[in-house]
Write a structure and sequence with these properties.
four-stranded antiparallel β-sheet
């Protein structure tokens, strides 16, 4: 079956960096655009970043542009989110999913991983 498993979350201080990873199995990873979303406490899902299947293009939400970088390794079937200059408002549960844009159909989702940014 299809599995998306996030790792790399945890507690960070403002200004710190974290790198999230998502290991994918059970689907033809090479043909899927992938992305990351988050859900802040008490809020809805916010789509943060996406990357084409061949990594030829990326998309970022304004809230994370210039701080977060999405990348992928098709050989390892993994997608990554490098998060720099973390802010308290980056706190939330982070999910990887298929698709590149907020409006794209996201067929598969991971279970999510918590990121907490606090002094």
């Amino acid at each position: 079956q299809v599995q998306l498993v996030e790792s790399g979350g945890g507690l960070a201080q403002p200004g710190d960096s974290l790198r999230l990873s998502c290991a994918v199995s059970g689907l033809n990873f090479d043909i899927y655009a992938m992305g990351w979303a988050r859900q802040a406490p008490g809020a809805g899902i916010e789509w943060l970043a996406g990357i084409y299947s061949d990594a030829s293009d990326t998309w970022y939400a304004d809230s994370v542009k210039d701080r977060f970088t999405i990348s992928r390794d098709n050989g390892k079937k993994e997608v990554y989110l490098q998060m720099n200059v973390l802010k308290p408002e980056d706190t939330g549960k982070y999910f990887c999913a298929t698709g590149i844009l907020p409006t794209t159909q996201h067929d598969y989702w991971g279970q999510g991983i918590q990121v907490t940014v606090a002094p």
